[in-house]
Amino acid sequence: MAKITEDLIKFGFEGEGGLTEEFIKRYSLSFPKNKIVIQEGERSSDVYYILEGAVYVAKKLHDTFKILTFLDKGDIFGEMGVFEETTRSATIITKTDSTFLKFTKDEFIEILKIHPRWIDKIITDMSERIVQMLQKL
Questions:
Q1: Helix segments in 16-60, DSSP class H
Q2: In the chain, N or C: fewer CB atoms in 10 Å?
Q3: Helix 117-136 and helix 105-114: axis angle, to 10°?
Q4: pLDDT digits (tens, 9 = 90+) for 116-130
Q5: CA-CA distance, 125 to 137, in Å (whole number)?
Q6: Using CA atoms, how far apart are residues 112 and 129, in angstroms rounded to an integer?
Q7: What integer pLDDT is reported at residue 13 of this predicted model?
Q8: What are the structural domain ranges in the chain?
């Protein structure tokens, strides 16, 4: 079980408005443009919140990547790993220089418990992604 910190509680309730310098230092990761953040097929249940920048969501087809969609500031990725015990279903590549907040599965579950609006966001975001992908078929 994740240790509930005051900063984790503030992020749960206030989103980016609850971020402190210490919180950002503890949870943030930065990647340059065109860097792979998550590799399709790897095992991980970490969840990422895009603080700055944008990423491509891609599937590897033969020797190239097919871009399925892109995500930007305020979007979450990796959340399927919280709900499923499976490998990553897509590769995430930075579209621009990007900064993320990275949470373990337990930390993210605590955020969901603190404020259910994050569950609404995940469901809405997943629905939008499905619609976008279906339109590309």
A1: 21-27
A2: C
A3: 110
A4: 777 887 888 878 877
A5: 19
A6: 20
A7: 55
A8: 6-136
